[in-house]
Design a protein that fits this description.
By secondary structure, the chain is α+β, with helices and mostly antiparallel strands. The chain is built from two helices and five strands; from the N terminus they run βαββββα. About 30% of the residues lie in helices and about 35% in strands. Strand 2 and strand 3 form a beta hairpin. Helix 1 crosses helix 2.
Length: about 100
């Protein structure tokens, strides 16, 4: 699980995240705007192994705290891949914002 704080609105983060997740071949399964959750998933393939990604967005005044948690559906894979994916998502988000 990776966290980072940005100075923007929750809706700006949601709009940018949907584009970023599509670039990483994640498909948005659910966006809960009221609770601030985005649930995305990759299909089952040799390299992705059914990865899921849950992004939690919490507004704290003028700042937004973003928490990214990725996992594999099958529970197998190379150790550290999910944490590197979490860091990559946050890094791409930081570049866009």
């Amino acid at each position: 699980m990776q966290k980072r704080i940005f100075h923007c609105t929750k809706h700006a983060v949601i709009n940018i995240l949907t584009d970023l997740l599509h670039k990483e071949r994640f498909y948005i399964r659910d966006v809960n705007d009221k609770k601030g959750f985005i649930y995305a998933q990759q299909g089952l393939s040799f390299f992705s192994l059914g990865r899921t990604c849950v992004i939690r967005i919490v507004e704290n005044g003028a700042d937004v705290e973003i928490e990214v948690r990725c996992s594999n559906k099958l529970g197998i894979g190379i150790p550290g891949i999910t944490s590197s994916l979490e860091r990559k998502i946050l890094h791409l988000l930081q570049e866009e914002l």
